[in-house]
Amino acid sequence: MSYNDRIQSSLDGIRSGLAAAFNVDPNSTFIKVPVLFYPDDPNYPTYPSPPDPNDERTLASAYTPDMVNCIIINDRLLVPKPFVATDPNDPNDPNASVFEEHVRNSLTGTGLSAHFIDDWEYYHCWLGELHCGTNVERAAWTRRWWMYSGSP
User: Which residues are catalytic?
Assistant: First the structure.
């Protein structure tokens, strides 16, 4: 099993736990966002070489910009640009990222749109993403959403 497969197994367990706690379907409630991880060492936090599949460490950092760490503003998601996996089969855009396309396709029907932003040098290489450098002010809901089943 590769390092990223082990991390995925851990994430699957977390998703299942959340789905059970909130009584939702884990396959239709969550949007899967692609990211590659590498074994992290808290004593030496630096950008790594590609992951060793035999590495048994469980602490992980994002090798690719972690798109789940986006900022949501109304109906727009400001998403870290993944800079990975161009799609050679896209004749309209030779720089089209299969990771970006996956996120756009996953958002179909939600009313949300993704806007990809380069945060590589400013946040990702320093082990952060867009949300780490922002302070978004939001209005609190007036409805006590936690007292109801269903959407807030």
Answer: 132
Tokens for 91, please give them.
Answer: 């004749």
Residue 115 has pLDDT above 90, yes or no: yes
Looking at residue 47, its amino acid is: Y
Question: Taking phi first (over 0 means left), then psi (-120 to 50 degrees means alpha), and beta for anything else, what does residue 23 get?
Answer: left
Structural domain spans, the chain: 1-63, 65-137
Record the tokens describing residue 139, joined without a space.
């209005």
- Give the 3-state secondary structure of residue 11: helix
Start-to-end C-alpha separation, the chain: 40
DSSP assignments along 99-123, one per residue: HHHHHHHHTTTTT-EEEEE--TTTT
Give yes or no for residue 132 having a pLDDT over 90: no
Residues 6 or more apart whose CB falls under 8 angstroms from that of 59 comprise 39, 40, 41, 42
**Residue 52, C-beta contacts closer than 8 angstroms, at least 6 positions apart:** 3, 39
**Whole-prediction pTM:** 0.72
pLDDT tens for residues 43-91? 555 555 555 556 666 678 888 888 888 898 889 999 999 887 666 666 6
